Amino acid sequence: MGIEDTLEKANIVLLDIEGTTTSISYVKETLFGFIRSNLEHYVKTHWNDAEFQEDLVVLKQQAHKDKINKVEGLIEIPDGSIAAVVKNVLWQMDLDRKTKALKQLQGHIMHEGYNNGELKGHMYPDVLPALKSWVSKGKKLYIYSSGSIEAQKLLFGHSEEGNILELFSGHFDTAVGGKTDTASYMNISNELNCRCQDVLFLTDVPKEARAAKSAGMEAVLVVREGNAPLSEEDKVSFSVISSFPMLSC
Length: 249
Ligand SMILES: CSCCC(=O)C(=O)COP(=O)(O)O
Ligand SMILES: [Mg+2]
Description:
The chain is an alpha/beta fold. The chain has helices spanning about 5-10, 25-45, 50-70, 80-95, 100-115, 125-135, 150-155, 180-190, 205-215, 230-235, and strands at about 10-15, 140-145, 170, 200-205, 220, 240.
């Protein structure tokens, strides 16, 4: 099967963000840099907000789980300690953890940056024209990212190219499961009421591509400047593209 047939066969395109639509440096340096710089101030000024109190409950639940699992380096969160919350979040960010607790709070902190114009979601220049063309051909587009659905909507709702949310038919985050778990892709196909074979998943991470493929989806690896290099085995196992139009007929 040629690479163009891969897109032709799929009714649904499921897209990863970091390393696929958007540079890793935007996520790691700009977005996470904004969160690191604003974290302490955010925690202090939102401490009594209902939304932050909910985030705190989830952070504490995660810390409790980490304690039971003897996670190395864990920063515990005693009641009322702003400093411990900040340290715990920075520790999780240093490890690039994908916990619900971290991603939920990150989404809430970045909200302010997108709303005041300090943050604009990065997209590679080939992404928007390709997405428009795929939608015009009847494809349905969905996002699946470790970033919370709220963070996904902020990025594409305040992108460098404007609000492009209308191109997407829906969003998934780790509420359906982790991105390297096969079951997550089955959960997505169940939620979309489609067969896994109808879905093409685009990602930069071979483990995610393997999980999607094990579920029965088609998966294509995306290489972008700054992404981790692919192994020879990955290059043999998957089609590899360096820009989205490489999939279009
Ligand atoms: C939605 S923007 C923030 C992305 C993020 O938090 C992250 O961990 C990247 O995850 P992805 O699954 O898009 O590689
Ligand atoms: Mg990625």
